[in-house]
Each structure stands twice: as C-alpha cells, then as structure tokens.
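Quarterly update, task 2.4: TXE-bound model.
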Amino acid sequence: MQLRQSQNLGLKDWEVKANMVNELVWFPTNKCLIDGAWVDSELNNEIELINPSNGRLLSRIARASKNDVKNAISAASVALEKTWGEKTALERGRILLKMSQLVIKYSKNLAHLESLDVGKPLSQAKNDVIALARYLEFYGGAADKIHGMTIPFQNDFSVSCLRERLGVTAHIIPWNYPMQIIGRSISASLAMGNACVVKPSEEACLTALAFGEIATEAGLPAGALNIIPGFGFEAGQALAASKKVNHISFTGSLLTGISVQTAAAQNVVPTTLELGGKSPQIVFDDANLKRAIPFLVNAGIQNSGQTCSASSRILVHETIYRDVVEKMSGMYKNLRVAPAIEDYDLGPVISRRQMDIITSYQNKCSDLKLLAEGSLMEGTNNQGYYMSPKLFETENYRHSVAQEEIFGPIQIIIPFKNEQEAIKIANSTDYGLVASVWTENGSRQLRVAKAVKAGQIFVNNYGAGGGVELPFGGIGRSGHGREKGFESLYSFSQLKTIANFHG
Ligand code: TXE
C-alpha cells in the first residue's frame, strides 16, 4: 500500500495566538513518523484528541496499526545498521545538543501545545519544555563520556568490558508529562546509540509529534526516532509484544505495566517500569514550616495531582498537626482552578474517564473530614474536566484513599506520634517512588531517609526541581529500573566482556 506522506506537520512552527482555549489544532496531525517521513497510518484511521479545558475536539491523531508498528521497528533496525549506527558518540551527542537548542527555539509553541493537550497550566507546561531541553543537553553532553572498563585478571589475560547499545528501544509514554517523559527516556537511549520507537498516549500526543519534527530539523537520521500514535490495546500492545525490540520503557498504570512486562517476558526483553506511587512527606515537630508548607501543597496539586511522584500523603507529628492543618488549609482556600491557558494553580484533569476515577475516590472519602478545598474560576462551566483540589484528614492510614494511587487533586493528612510510627505509615503502601522528610535534626534525616522505602528521598525539599541528573525510579509496585542521570545510560546499554589471552 502506498502511504500518503507530508514533509512537515507545522506543529513546531505553530504561531501562538491570543485566545487559544477554543482553538482547533487543524494541522495534519494524523500522521506517524516512520523512517523520517510523516505517513498515514496503514488503515488511514484516526483518534480524536479532546481539549480537557472545554471538552471539545482539539485535533486528530493517527491510529497506528500492528503493521505500522512493524514498519517503525524495521525502520529503526535499518537506521542502526546504516546512518545512525555509524555515527560516533560525539556526533550523536552533537545532534542531541542541536535538538535541545531547537526545543528552546520552539519553546513557546511547545508549551502552548502541551497546555492545550494535557490541560496543564501554561507555566507548568513551560517548565516541562525546559526539562525536555535539559534532558537533551545532559545526555547530549554525556554521549561520549560513558565508558566501559578494564578488569585486572590473570597476568596472561587482558580483560575489557565494552559498553554497547541495546538496539531498538520501545518507549510507551503516558499523557500526564509527554514532553518530560519523552525527554528522559529518548535522550538517554539515543545517546547510547539505540534507535527508538515511541508510542505516545492517545489522550495527549501533540508535543510528541512536534518533537519528531524538531528531531528531523536537528539532523537526526531517518529511522533513529519513529513515532507511532495509537491506542494502547493496539499499537502499544504490538510494540510490547515484538520480538525485534530490545528494551521497553513504560510509564503508566500498574495494570498496563504488568501487561507490558508479561508481553516482554515472552521474548526475554528487559523493561524499565515507572508505575506511580502514593508518596508521603513526613513532617517532624522541628521542621521549618515556613519552607515546608508550599512544598507540602504544591507537590500534591501540581498538574492536578496527575503526577507519578505526586505527594498524596502528608504525615505530621501530633504536636504540630493542628498548626500544619491550619496552614495547609489556608493555602488550599486560595487555590484556583481555571482553563489551562489562563494559568492559575490548577487546570482541568485529562479526561472524563479520569474525572470519574477521581470522583469515585472522593466518594470513598465520605467518612473522612474535608479540611479545605480550592475553587473553580469563571470559564470552568464549559464542559471541561474541572475538579477543585481537596484536603482530607484521617487517622486511619489503612483507608483505601490513603493506600491507593488516586491520580487527582486530593491529599490526605495523617497524624503520627513518633518517628517509628511515621516510618511504619510511610512504608504501609505497596508503592515506593518518592518520599520527603522535613526535620532540622541531622541524625533523624539520615535514619528516616534510610528506613523509608522509596527510590528517591528528599530532605527538606520535594523533587529537587526535577533533577535531570538524579536517578529516579521505584521499588515495589512503583516499578523497577532507574531513569535520569547516568543510571539511565546503563539501562540503555549492555556490557560485553572480552577476555584476551596473550600468554
Ligand atoms: O494508563 P495506561 P491510563 C495511572 C493513573 C491513572 C491510570 C490510568 O493512576 O489513573 O494510570 O491511566 C499505553 N500495551 N497512570 O489508562 O493504560 C497507553 O496507550 C502497551 C500513572 O492512561 O497505563 C499509554 O500510551 N501499551 C502514570 C500508556 O500505555 C499500552 C501515568 C499509559 O496508559 C497498553 C499515567 C497495552 N496493553 C497513568 N494499554 C504515571 N506513572 O505517571 C495502554 N497502553
């Protein structure tokens, strides 16, 4: 079948206009990027993207079929044998750096697209663009600085370990942070010399497509990065089940993660899974509350709580509990929810489906005390998916809303009596992604940081501003493998040991 092609979608050059909330992104966004060309999906099928700020059609994206996925994987394999595979580490790094510069050049457009598509306040989308550029910069710089090693062995041997690429890497991306998650995963993989096939989310996909355009403009050879929008049960599943993929990075829900890992296991393909959490912040009686309070709240409501590392549990020592409740409630009462582009504290949540999930958790909170909530601004009565953020309290840390990931703007505050109990509550869920400890006591900082089960622990802060350099990933049901920092380069490569006998 001859596929229709277009040179450019026009997304990266999209002119940002004033009142974008009602704008329909009419560009030919219904394409897949395969082997450097924007092509129709095999069956010429489309998926509608809905603008969460008004519930109306935003754009249409391609619905890639199994064959489209196959073509994308073949294009990646060919790029590895030829153009991309022949590049030196230095050359790969320079292309990533060029991509980083172009992301900055198109940052205004990218931020607007992400804000419209995901429904996140514009300034949060701007931060995501900066993070994307930073990932490309970090891994572009690292591409020629990741080495193998030599091993002292018997005197008549020379032993070296080469750090080699894996081959074709698959990247299954969720809707909550498309730019950031593409950035952290693709940049590291390309730096190591792999070729990528990306399956963005069917709920938010536009910046992934714009990123494809930027890669082409930066001179990334055809096939090194392929983008196949589509449904998870179709394109996603086909990608996860392919024998020709050599690694899968997945960020998303626990159940889909299990299904991806099960599919990969049939082909003995390694996976990196990032599956969210129920991340606690532990506030001791000597904490600097002036500094802590904004972190306690913002880490829960950022992107309407739809963040894998959202802090949805706040554990507070009983002696300062009422003070913290009062201060957090004060902040909550000033939180404003508005259409994303208007850039208040929260935008809408991603979809009607997500709204229903969050509402069902809110209903389960009926036996908890509602301490405070934010308010909806004008413009939110327009079919968009708006939810006011809510702060609840309970002593029952085993309650389902204090144990399960809600993925919405709900925080639960829980009192504790002593350090031992705080650690017990923090470690009581099946998750372990991120945690923070607020105390001025140095011994306690280290004791608690070591005792809490999570991949990242922050002391007297939360998130360290994103920290591209800092290894990130979960334990337990939050997943396995590490992204970010140099760790990610290890995940996207393998060691080959050469034992040379010269006796
Ligand atoms: O996730 P899915 P959904 C959590 C959050 C949310 C819930 C549901 O709790 O409420 O997941 O969100 C692709 N084979 N997180 O349904 O299904 C899918 O197309 C291969 C946490 O959106 O996990 C999309 O690209 N791929 C999270 C990606 O997987 C499949 C971020 C994620 O979708 C597939 C998002 C399949 N069988 C949701 N089925 C986080 N950790 O940050 C779907 N996909």
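Highlight for this quarter: Residues 172-176, 199, 201-202, 232-233, 236-237, 240, 251-253, 256, 259-260, 274-276, 308, 354, 357, 405, 407 surround TXE (CB under 6 Å).
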